[in-house]
Design brief:
The structure holds 2 protein chains of 2 kinds.
Chain A: E1 2-10, E2 19-26, E3 31-35, H1 42-49, H2 52-55, E4 60-67, E5 70-71, H3 77-80, E6 84-87, H4 100-110, H5 115-128, H6 144-156, E7 162-166, H7 174-191, E8 194-198, E9 211-215, E10 221-226, H8 227-231, H9 239-246, H10 256-260, E11 286-295, E12 298-308, E13 313-317, H11 324-331, E14 339-344, E15 347-348, H12 354-357, E16 361-364, H13 377-388, H14 394-400, H15 416-428, E17 434-438, H16 446-461, E18 465-469, H17 473-479, E19 482-487, E20 490-495, H18 497-500, H19 510-515, H20 522-528
Parallel strand pairs in A: 3-8, 3-9, 6-7, 7-8, 13-18, 13-19, 16-17, 17-18
Antiparallel strand pairs in A: 1-2, 1-4, 4-5, 9-10, 11-12, 11-14, 14-15, 19-20
Helix pairs in contact in A: 4-5, 4-6, 6-7, 13-15
Chain B: H1 7-23, H2 27-44, H3 49-75, E1 82-86, E2 95-98, H4 99-125, H5 128-134, H6 140-168, H7 181-204, H8 220-236, H9 240-259, H10 275-297, H11 317-324, H12 328-332
Antiparallel strand pairs in B: 1-2
Classes of the chains: A alpha/beta, B mainly alpha.
Chain lengths: ~525, ~325
């Protein structure tokens, strides 16, 4: 089906190869998850399958890749589209047309099929991905999950025997992500489509897949085998796998369902003591007083009243489009409320500009590329200091983020995770007291996620107010001390993760689904079951 | 759901507006065309996220137009109808300020604004997919490139907002013209990133795949284009008879080259034609051809300059009517976006 033989690839102008002598075979009907640290060549590997590499990207390509017996060097990507469909990360930049139906028909028109055939396939595909209700909708009016489904539909309509996806869920809320994975599982089960899924959030996907491919940071293959075979070589396994290993469960469960079989149903619920609710007379750095916001006459936020305290890490959660980003932008004046008042240190920020508020408030936007422009990371930090009219220790900040070695590199040449850290360093320099982050862990590997989580905690312990918008349930469970749940512009829940997450249908971490009670993280399990301490060496 | 607007008729209308505005400097015709185009824009373009960005483009265009009028007025220093003097000591703007320069600037500005409004109307009226389908097969690659170009404007404006927000959050304020790098560099990068992703997605979806063995007669299109170019140069050289012959051959083979293939790339839904679409198409052809003919046959009727002395611009009722006809899409109704 998909056959890699001694594949080596180096991007044009790159110092090191992105992939090194990869030998890999994906049998027909298999579901392979490809993982590895950021910059390990996962996306590169995915792009080799349909010939985007080497045809589209250029560079030095060695070895052979064949799909259904077609050597990718001999066929253009567009001609290989019949064999391998491709879905990339960002659903927004992958749609060519304006309407759902047209988007699905686009590839079929390109293949030169007859109108009757096109109509039939569009119809079938709409049903396969349950899109028939949306068929005439304009694509920009769809949610992220729906959009990604449209992109998958467009690829599937061409009836490829393989579907390659490069982190298709990284921008989606938990429900949207689960929807996409469920669809992949169904296509694999029922249609026998070979699936190659590049992903570093493994907790949701391991149950659906049957093979796991691990790459290391040099682009070499570390493991290629069944899930159980490869699992042991994962550099940073998902929390459930870690816990299962600690508890010596064998075979290691990778889904909630499998793990539940190990937990005695009779076992009483273990609850950790919840610390007493903090009194609310702590100082408040940021306050929202009946804040509402409308966009084009549509309410986005409705009368939100809350406050944020120094020394805390607060997570804003909620489905895509629930108003998380809007709320962050109201806090640093990028948006002005249509009603109510935002106060920083007790004073209304109504008359203060964003640039002025930047003295105290740092804001990391979703897309780090939106702010980087200097020749070096160091210069990027100096620029912020000049803007804030501050002096500050750039080296300390770079050290804190593990960027000291890269200080003289051009930020725009860096891989995703490094670029994101560079942007974070650029907003952190100059000692702001409030840090706002918009989905800081999207597209970030597990190791870096831990580093960031620890950083947020340590910043908070130095008295900073950290507020982040995120979809990442595990990050919140482990590092946040408070979570606000937004739904349709209203504050639906406000409390510690341990108060809100247990039992939640969408926001409960896998650990909680297995162990119940109010256990959320591996650490919780270890303290609740001290007698089950691991004896692994 | 409303049916999408007919891309062929809107393309014809857009081309007609473009032809009128670039073929004449005569302010009478230009103002008529501006009024007609503006009425079409106001009556036909409804609220949609796309048209919101196009509205911004129109606003920017208006600002550019006003600035260009002022710039022309203050720097031209030519013409006989002097309004007032500015002291010569002032660099660049010092000297005579003339009514001629003002009028010249205004007529240029009117043509720019008309073109932008027509582009905005077209951009917000026509679905990208329907437009793509209307492009004849041999030109489909070029068509897709053009359509992506069409989405470039809204895309860049979106990226620019994102960048401006990100930099303001670092405390950045624009103080001088040298401060543009923090805004421009990331905007270009985001635009590039987006274009790259889109190109990858299209390639992966079989765009440009060879779908049938090459057909015979692929040389019709290039021959047609060469013949038409020959016809143009012959016209300029005064060989009208030869030019007509070459032009006819050119048109025929281009037409065959473009439309003779239709069978090889089928579209999901054929372009639908209503009576009002046909009316708009007809009117656009009349307006466009009138001005094209005027340029070739009676150049004096469309030429006009405010320098060195002001003269009343000539006015032919036929050409005036051709400008007014551009209002047709506002009157006949039909599909909207």
């Amino acid at each position: 089906m998909i056959d890699f033989s001694r594949v080596t690839f180096q991007y044009p102008g790159a110092a090191n190869p992105a992939l090194q002598t990869i030998d890999w075979y994906a049998p027909s009907g298999s579901f392979t998850v490809v993982t590895g640290p950021s910059g390990s060549g996962k996306s590169t590997l995915a792009r080799c399958i349909n010939g985007l590499i080497p045809h589209f990207h250029g560079g030095k390509f060695g070895g052979t890749v064949t799909i259904n017996g077609h050597d990718t060097r001999d066929y253009s990507t567009s001609n290989l589209s019949r064999h391998a469909g491709f879905v990339a990360q960002d659903p927004e930049s992958q749609t060519v047309t304006d309407r759902v139906e047209d988007e699905i028909a686009f590839g079929l028109e390109n293949l030169g099929l007859s109108r009757a055939e096109i109509r039939l396939r569009v119809e079938e595909t709409l049903d396969l991905l349950r899109l028939s209700e949306l068929r005439r909708r304009r694509i920009e009016t769809l949610s992220g999950g729906e959009r990604q489904r449209v992109v998958i539909a467009a690829a599937m309509a061409m009836r490829p025997s393989a579907l390659v996806l490069d982190e298709p869920t990284s921008q989606l809320d938990p429900a949207g992500a689960e929807e996409v994975i469920a669809i992949l599982e169904r296509m694999n089960d029922e249609l026998g489509t070979t699936i190659v899924l590049v992903e570093h959030r493994l907790n949701r996907v391991l149950g659906a897949a049957d093979r796991l491919l691990i790459l290391d940071s040099h682009g070499q293959l570390v493991a290629d085998g069944t899930i159980q075979d490869s699992l042991g070589l994962l550099p940073s396994p998902p929390p459930l796998v870690c816990v299962a290993r600690d508890l010596n469960w064998c075979p290691v469960p990778v889904t909630v369902r499998q793990a539940r079989a190990f937990v005695q149903p009779s076992a009483e619920l273990r609850n950790l003591e919840t610390p007493e609710r903090r009194s609310d007379n702590r100082p408040k750095t940021v306050e929202l007083d009946r804040v509402s916001f409308r966009y084009d006459h549509e309410p986005v936020l409705r009368s939100i009243t809350t406050a944020f305290h120094p020394g805390s890490v607060t997570a804003l959660m909620g489905r895509n489009g629930s108003g998380k980003t809007t709320l962050l932008k109201l806090l640093n004046g990028l948006l002005k409320p249509s009603g109510g008042r935002v106060r920083v240190d007790g004073e209304s920020i109504e008359r203060r500009s964003t640039a002025d508020l930047a003295q105290e408030i740092a804001y990391l936007p979703q897309n780090a590329t939106a702010m980087l422009f200097n020749e070096t990371i160091e210069a990027e930090l100096q620029f912020t200091l000049r803007c804030r009219k501050r002096t500050g220790d750039t080296h300390a900040v770079l050290d804190q983020l593990g960027l000291a070695q890269l200080a003289q590199r051009n930020p725009l040449d860096l891989a995703g995770g490094e670029k994101m850290r560079a942007a974070l360093a650029a907003v952190l320099v100059g000692e702001p007291r409030i840090l706002l982050l918009d989905e800081p862990t999207r597209g970030v590997d597990c190791a870096l996620k831990q580093t960031l989580g620890n950083l947020f905690r340590s910043l908070a312990s130095q008295g900073m107010t950290v507020i982040l918008a995120t979809h990442d349930v595990d990050l919140v469970a482990e590092f946040a001390d408070r979570m606000l749940l937004l739904g349709d512009g209203e504050l639906v829940a406000d409390g510690t993760p341990r108060e809100i997450m247990p039992g939640s249908l969408t926001f409960a971490p896998q650990i909680n689904r297995v162990f119940g009670g109010n256990l959320l993280t591996g650490e919780d399990v270890r303290s609740a079951f001290p007698n089950l301490r691991p004896d692994h060496s | 759901m409303k049916t999408p607007a007919n891309p062929v008729c809107w393309s014809a209308w857009g081309l007609a507006v473009a032809l009128v505005t670039i073929s004449t400097r005569n302010p009478l015709y230009l103002v008529l065309a501006l009024i007609a185009t503006t009425i079409v824009y106001l009556t036909r373009v409804s609220d949609s996220p796309d048209s919101a960005t196009w509205r911004l483009v129109v606003r920017i265009g208006a600002v550019v137009a006003v600035v260009s009028v002022l710039f022309n007025l203050l720097t031209a220093h030519a013409g006989e109808d002097v309004l007032f003097h500015l002291p010569h000591a002032i660099p660049i703007v010092g000297g005579i300020i003339t009514f001629n320069a003002l009028l010249y600037g205004v007529s240029t500005a009117v043509s720019i604004v008309t073109l932008i409004i027509a582009a905005a109307t077209f951009g917000s009226m026509v679905d990208r997919a329907t437009l793509l389908r209307a492009v004849p097969y041999p030109l489909s690659s070029a068509g897709v490139a053009a359509i992506i170009g069409l989405s470039f404007f809204p895309q860049m404006i979106f990226a620019f907002h994102e960048v401006r927000d990100a930099q303001a959050s670092r405390g950045f304020k624009v103080r001088s013209i040298r401060d543009v790098a923090p805004l421009v560099v990331p905007t270009l990068f985001l635009g590039l990133e987006h274009a790259f992703n889109l190109a990858e997605a299209m390639e992966s979806r079989g765009f440009g795949a060879s779908i049938a063995p090459p057909r015979r007669g692929t040389w019709f299109l290039p021959v047609g284009v060469v013949m038409m170019l020959a016809a143009i140069s012959l016209t300029i050289g005064g060989q009208v008879g030869l030019a007509l012959g070459a032009g006819a051959i050119g048109l025929l083979s281009t037409g065959y080259g473009l439309f003779g293939y239709r069978g090889s790339r089928v579209t999901y839904r054929p372009t639908r034609w209503t009576v009002s679409d046909l009316v708009v198409l007809g009117v656009a052809l009349i307006s466009g051809c009138s001005f094209a003919a005027a340029v070739v046959v009676a150049p004096a009727s469309v030429e006009w300059s405010s320098f060195p002395r002001l003269i009343a611009p000539p006015f032919s009722p036929w050409l005036g009517l051709a400008c007014v006809l551009l209002i047709a899409p506002a009157l006949v109704g039909g599909a909207t976006n």
